[in-house]
Amino acid sequence: MTKHEAGENASDKENFKWTEYMDNAFIQSMKTQDDNGYRINGTFTPQAYKNMVEELSTKLQMKFTISLVEIATFGANGKGAAKKDALKPVDEGS
Question: Could you tell me which residues are beta bridge partners of residue 39?
Answer without folding.
Answer: 44
